What we know:
By secondary structure, this protein is of the alpha/beta class.
Amino acid sequence: xxxxxxxxxxxxxxxxxxxxxxxxxxxxxxxxxxxxxxxxxxxxxxxxxxxxxxxxxxxxxxxxxxxxxxxxxxxxxxxxxxxxxxxxxxxxxxxxxxxxxxxxxxxxxxxxxxxxxxxxxxxxxxxxxxxxxxxxxxxxxxxxxxxxxxxxxxxxxxxxxxxxxxxxxxxxxxxxxxxxxxxxxxxxxxxxxxx
Length: 195
């Protein structure tokens, strides 16, 4: 690997935020998943969780909509909700779902500088009751239109850029959070990825 490539990859890895992730529950359209991956990469997320416990697992994701972001991310796929949440609880302090309910708080009220996993449900029915019951709370994206929902990839982008704003203001992107074997392993793995 050339010194220039090493420097470029290291610069990106130094901005990764291992305390922020996205969970996609039963999202049908692989292009929506890929669009979320592209946004996740853009804001420095490394790990993505895909939970398909009501639909078959995805074999691949839409390369066009992700601009091949999937090859730069660590994707964890689950078919069991409890297993997925056990893995999330090991790595994140809070888990929030996007769900319109009486106890939901506005997106801007969340503290997204803490260690957090954000769950987005599928295109038709949203997050399942099972997942809502396992989460620490619900949030909504403030809207004033007649239609009270956004496309999943748009909702995720809006949410992740609010997280980016909060984390950037708090200086999270000025300090390297990936360390040791995780950092070295990704740098080595990325060295073999074609751009």
